[in-house]
Amino acid sequence: METICPGLNVLELGSGSVAASIAGVVLADAGARVIKIEPTEGDQLRRDNPNGFLVWNRGKESLVADLRTAAGQQTVRGLAANADVVIEAFAPGRTAGWGIGPAQLRAENPALIHCSITGFGRTGPYAELKAYDPLVAAKVGLWARGAWAHRPGPIMFPVPWASFGAAMESVAAIMGALLVRERTGRGQALDSTLFAGLDPIDYFVSTVVQLMAKRGEKPSGDARSATSASRFGVLLVTRDGKFIQTSTMLPHQGRALCEVAGIAHVLQQERFANLPQFPNAEVAQEWETMLQEAFREKDLDYWLPRLQASPDVAFEVAVTSTEGLAHPQIVHNGDVVTVDDPVRGPVKQVGPVGHFEKTPIGPRRSAPALGENAGPLQAHPVPAGGGAAPKHPFEGVTIVEFGCFYAMPFATAVLASLGARVIKLEDGNGDPHRNSFGPEVATHKTTAGKESISLDLRTADGRAVAQKLVAHADAFVTSYRSGVAEKFGLGYAELSKANPRLLYVHAAGYGTDGPYAHRALYAQAAQTVAGAFGRQVGYWIDPAQSEGYSVMELQAVVLERLNMLVDGDSNAALALLAALSLGLYHQQRTGQGQFLRTSMIGGNAWAYSDDFCDYAGKPPVPLCDSEYYGTSALDRVYQAVGDGWVCLAVRTDAEFSALVKTMGLAELASDERFATAEARAAHDAALQEVLAAGFRQKAAGEWESALTAAGVGCVEVNMLGQPVFTAFDPGLRESGLTVTCEHPLFGEMVQAAPPVRFSDTPGRVSPPCLRGQHNRQILAELGYSDAEIAELEAAKAVIPAGDADS
Predict the structure, then answer these.
(1) b/e string for 161-194 if b means 16 or more Cβ within 10 A?
(2) What is the spatial order of strands in the sheet that 233-237 belongs to?
(3) For the chain, what is the domain count?
(4) Which domain of life does the UniProt lineage start with (predicted)?
(5) 624 with 156: CB under 8 angstroms?
(6) What is the dihedral of CA 247, 249, 251, 253, to 10 degrees?
(7) H-helix or E-strand spanning residue 568
(8) 527: region left, alpha or beta (phi > 0 left; psi from -120 to 50 alpha)
(9) Fewest beta carbons within 10 Å, which of 109, 175, 478, 700?
(10) How many CB atoms neighbour CB 678 within 10 A?
């Protein structure tokens, strides 16, 4: 059966890299031949994260080569000569020192696309920091949870968000570079970073802090300062200790939740008229408390059928990732598959990143044994090219977007930053996200680089314009529930008939069809399906921890410890980005259109995929302690002198030896309690105590400098928060990781640069669009005269930028 990347040869280098592994497995699922280069002892993930290794390396081959030796280096050079793509995740300059860096390999194979994945890029003040997920998150400010946290200091969550994001962004970049190669016959060098991989998780607060600064206020990275008078997500606890995450983004959803809870009478009161937004924080808290008191009176078995009977209530029950495998919609979508492993037997795991109608992708076999491969890569013809290089990787690709809020629109915004033309189809009121947190605040990132056309699809003329627009597009992407696009003449059957080469993408919350497809879904509930509660706050979702508590006690003790990082939208956006880029690569090469479906719940399953699996003997993933300091003594935050904190991440025996030597604790290296990784795990509490006392002897910045120089993963924790770091850090500007753009309403604003740097066809930085801003330009391109456009406006089929829908 035809697949998306047939004949594509990929090399993957970088022992222990989650990002390289995930990027590689997406390509392997899509039909590429991926050879993983492993050291003699095997990839570090085989030991540190066996579940992750199993899932993230399915369908690959393994080849053993010691890259520190001449023989190993020659092996890589020989393979790279016949490769199309190299994915490499070593420290900056490491492979160049071995003679197998991007410039050296590309000199021998000019058609090669080389994608490096680092923490903060190859240059700048953060380039030498180890590219370990907790370190990058700590430096960026992800652990700074604000004044509302239950204790002082950073709050750590053991999820590889940065690596997941960098992987999916790398896949999109590789597909874009391959499209460029189709035109030119030449490859290029790509640079991806874990920093950029984390950017999607800051939905809008980096915009908020800059607007605060413009008003002369002190910027705060605490997202709650922007949402204290709203309740877009309320966490409820039943009498039997089960947690229910609700999402109420729109008023009718809040009303539906009130009706289920039996408190519909409050809807008659003026102070609740605009829920989930309220006059002040006190009224917002009053509403939340009423809901919590109602749900605490009955068990889950009472509430579940009532919640399920109301399709406008977006909710999910907190589970672990393993439990999420059995979710009826996950099963229906094919977002869980079973792969037979020769050692472990059947392994349930996450399905493909997208479901393609004509070119299905997915695992072909389990992860390889060490050294298991089918021999050398075979030379094959590469595109002759000869054409001029485009300005940007996806230049010439047109995407029509029909959806709202964050997950789908952010995915297409990334493609816009890589050169695609993205036209946002909106009604007269525009995407409701435009006003979620203040006019246009939340849409800085989701509308950047796009054009907007504002149509009333309830009119025949409005529908005709939309259909004509899509007839000239390469892709149509909608995130509405099934039936919405069809109602407006924008269903797959109709659009593909007019445009057979169209890639039609349904990026729904739950899926295109199935038992939950009719339900509303947003970020917090979407991540709940994939096991975010079990992974982020696993200790506290145990019913035993809340048994017998009143609502007041729950609020004071338990609920404040369940303030998770909201990743449901960003995870879904990143998975969609990878799937959409694969689909566009196939469509541009073949001219063949097809239907692609993705879901928010499937995208979140990918983000938690090292635990979203199950097999006999599966080891548990490491979880943080009850106060979220870390998962172990060597993966933890420690207080330094004063108010400073460090984040420590030690992965190898060599790093441990360097750690204790640099800290003046050299005697620990010969202490039998800490001589091996197994011994250290057995005496973890004792090691924590020794290291905690040691770190209190110096300032956090001193520890970062000294330990980084010694090759140890340690950073000073940024307690200002990710939004402030992104908006104001000069080191990021120096590295080119952030840039400025001119916002149409707010003036000059700082934002993350396009997520991947291209040596030949860079991304682009463009301002956000306003609703209807490009009406006349787009209509003129479609052949409408000025008089015809005026008639469409008079008939209100086209709504000018200054007008609101009636």
Answers:
(1) bbbbbbbbbbbbbbbbbbbbbbbbebbbbbbbbb
(2) 233-237, 243-247, 314-317
(3) 1
(4) Bacteria
(5) yes
(6) -30
(7) helix 568-590
(8) alpha
(9) 109
(10) 7
Q: Which of 253, 346, 359 is nearest to 32 (CA)?
A: 359
Burial class, 731, CB count within 10 angstroms (exposed 0-12 / middle 13-18 / buried 19+): middle
Helices (H) then strands (E): counts for the chain: 33, 26
What's phi and psi for 315, nearest 5 deg? -155, 160
Residue 680 within any structural domain of the chain: yes
What gap in Å lies between CA 202 and CA 749, rounded to an integer? 15
Select from 734, 113, 36 the least CA-distant residue to 393. Answer: 113
CB atoms near residue 267 (< 10 Å)? 14
What CA–CA distance (Å, rounded) separates 201 from 214?
A: 23
Distance from the Cα of residue 325 to its chain's centroid: 20
- Has residue 682 got a pLDDT over 60? yes
Alpha-carbon distance of 122 to 156, in angstroms, equals 26
Model's pTM, two decimal places?
0.96
Q: Give yes or no for residue 805 having a pLDDT over 70.
A: no
Residues 6+ apart with CB under 8 A from 200: 165, 410, 570, 573, 574
- On whether residue 396 sits in a domain, the answer given is no
CA 9 to CA 16: how far, in whole Å? 21
Sequence-ordered strand ranges (E) for 457-511: 475-478, 503-508
- Boundaries of domain holding 701: 633-720
Helix axes 568-590, 161-184, angle to 10 degrees: 20
Task: Enter the DSSP assignment of 596.
Answer: E
Asked if the structure places residue 706 within a domain, the reply is yes
* Pairing mode of beta strands 613-614, 345-350: antiparallel
Q: In this structure, is residue 685 part of a structural domain?
A: yes
Residue 439 has pLDDT above 50, yes or no: yes
Give the SS3 label for residue 254. helix
> DSSP letter string over 345-373?
EEEEEE--SSEESSS----SS-PPPTT--
Q: What DSSP line would sit under 387-443, residue for residue?
A: SPPPSSTTTT-EEEEE--SSHHHHHHHHHHHTT-EEEEEE-SS--GGGGBTBTTTTT
| Closest C-alpha among 482, 495, 130, 556 to residue 333 | 482
pLDDT tens track for 475-525: 999 999 999 999 999 999 999 999 999 999 999 999 999 999 999 899 999
Distances 334 to 74, 170, 354, 598 between C-alpha atoms, Å: 42, 24, 10, 10
Q: What type of residue sits at position 470? A: V
Phi/psi zone of residue 141: left (φ > 0), alpha (ψ -120 to 50 degrees), beta? left
Give strand pairing partners of 314. 247
Q: Which residues is 632 bridged to in the sheet? A: 635
Assigned token pair, 674: 């800490």
pLDDT above 90: residue 42: yes
CA nearest to 595, candidates 485, 515, 511, 476: 476
Distances (CA, A) of 244 to 541, 572, 627: 10, 20, 22
Give tens-digit pLDDT for 411-427. Answer: 999 999 999 999 999 99
Residues 6+ apart with CB under 8 A from 300: 238, 240, 242, 244, 317
Whole-angstrom CA distances from 543 to 556, 578, 705 are: 16, 37, 43
Quick one: which H or E segment has residue 9? strand 9-13
Burial class, 631, CB count within 10 angstroms (exposed 0-12 / middle 13-18 / buried 19+)? middle
Q: Where are the beta strands (DSSP E) in 138-184?
A: none
Region 361-377: what's the mean pLDDT?
A: 97
CATH number at residue 673: 3.30.1540.10
